């Protein structure tokens, strides 16, 4: 049976631009949306951790989703992140996504509670029943505390709404498991430094925060590997991107790096909300150098065509 929704291409979890007083900068958010559409990404996700959802109320996340939807105006698919500690809050977000007419939801394990696989599956299915929208599961045990294992996948995979999974465990054996045993759940890369391996194992999409500020480069890797099947060139592109991925993941400064990168791209991403703090000058300088080299190297690879 064909999936209810086909996951294809680069999906950007959109940053939330902020003013100096930590309120949402809606004009800048609109500029980011337009920039991503024009750069050729294939879908957007609002309300993800890249958008600093952990600092936002349910109502604020829905308001940001509404503003994103309005600016997007149907030009690309739009999903809403619904991962919350409380099931009731996840349900409220999922129902809000339905009421806003969004294309689906990205749903993760409730953090900190460490549910069993059965409990986690029942939580997901409760959200599913409440909204009846396409669902991308989000497996990130490093943040959530537990893995979406086989018992979980067997239970939730029976729902026609469970269309895909963003796999962020970092365990390459999970890629093998999903590709071989759960082909009906579309696998999406959620571990940036394994994008090449995901594409080699049949993934057709990549949910990547770095595409906020390097959308063309991420699209280029996707098209080279997933569309053209040229993994020789793909390895060269991936090699050029690896220093950026190391910088993004070092020292717990992921969101700050993504926002500064977005600002470097000419978009006003603004500050970050507490408890996080912006990058210092040395961190900014390192990130800027890595991005400059990456862009130049990938431009050279493109020019060979």
Topology (SSEs and partners):
Blueprint: E1 9-13, H1 26-39, E2 43-46, H2 58-72, E3 78-81, H3 87-99, E4 104-108, H4 117-131, E5 135-139, H5 141-144, H6 150-156, E6 162-167, H7 172-181, E7 186-189, H8 195-200, E8 205-207, H9 215-227, H10 231-249, H11 254-264, H12 281-303
What does this protein structure show overall?
This protein is an alpha/beta fold. The protein has one domain (9-229): Aldolase class I (TIM Barrel). The protein has 12 helices and 8 strands. Helix 9 packs antiparallel against helix 10 (231-249). The radius of gyration is 18 Å and the shape is globular. The N and C termini lie far apart (38 Å).
In terms of DSSP E residues, the strand content is 5-15%
Task: Tell me how many strands there are.
Answer: 8
Order of helices and strands: EHEHEHEHEHHEHEHEHHHH
Name the CATH class: Alpha Beta
Report on the biggest sheet: 8 strands, parallel, barrel
Number of domains: 1
Instruction: State the low-pLDDT regions, or none.
Output: none
Structural class computed from helices and strand pairing: alpha/beta
- The mean pLDDT is 97
The end-to-end span amounts to: 38 Å
Give me the Rg, rounded.
Answer: 18 Å
Shape: globular
Descriptors for this entry?
TIM Barrel, 12 helices, 8 strands, alpha/beta, 305 residues
Question: What's the short story on this structure?
Answer:
With 305 residues, the protein is of the alpha/beta class. The chain is built from twelve helices and eight strands.
């Amino acid at each position: 049976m064909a999936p209810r929704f086909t996951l294809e291409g680069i999906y950007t979890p959109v940053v939330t631009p902020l003013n100096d007083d930590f309120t949402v900068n809606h004009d800048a958010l609109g500029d980011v949306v337009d920039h991503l559409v024009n750069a050729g990404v294939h879908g957007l996700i609002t309300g993800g951790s890249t958008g600093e959802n952990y600092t936002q109320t349910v109502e604020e996340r829905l308001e940001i989703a509404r503003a994103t939807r309005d600016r997007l105006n149907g030009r690309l698919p739009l999903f809403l992140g619904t991962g919350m500690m409380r099931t009731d809050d996840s349900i409220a977000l999922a129902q809000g996504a339905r009421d806003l007419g969004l294309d689906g939801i990205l749903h993760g394990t409730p953090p900190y509670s460490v549910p069993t696989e059965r409990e986690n599956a029942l939580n997901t299915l409760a959200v599913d029943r409440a909204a009846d929208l396409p669902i991308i599961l989000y497996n990130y045990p490093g943040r959530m505390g537990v893995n979406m294992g086989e018992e979980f996948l067997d239970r939730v995979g029976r729902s026609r709404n469970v269309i895909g999974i963003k796999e962020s465990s970092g365990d390459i054996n999970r890629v093998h498991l999903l590709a071989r045993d759960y082909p009906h759940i579309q696998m999406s890369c959620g571990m940036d430094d394994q994008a090449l391996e995901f594409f080699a194992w049949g993934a057709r999409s990549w949910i990547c925060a770095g595409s906020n500020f390097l959308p063309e480069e991420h699209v280029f890797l996707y098209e080279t590997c997933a569309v053209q099947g040229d993994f020789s060139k793909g390895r060269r592109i991936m090699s050029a991107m690896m220093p950026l991925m190391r910088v993004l993941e070092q020292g717990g400064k992921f969101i700050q790096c993504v926002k500064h990168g977005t600002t470097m791209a000419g978009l006003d991403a603004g500050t970050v909300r507490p408890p996080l703090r912006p990058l210092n000058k040395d961190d900014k300088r390192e990130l800027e150098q890595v991005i400059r080299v990456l862009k130049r190297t990938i431009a050279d690879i493109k020019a060979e065509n």
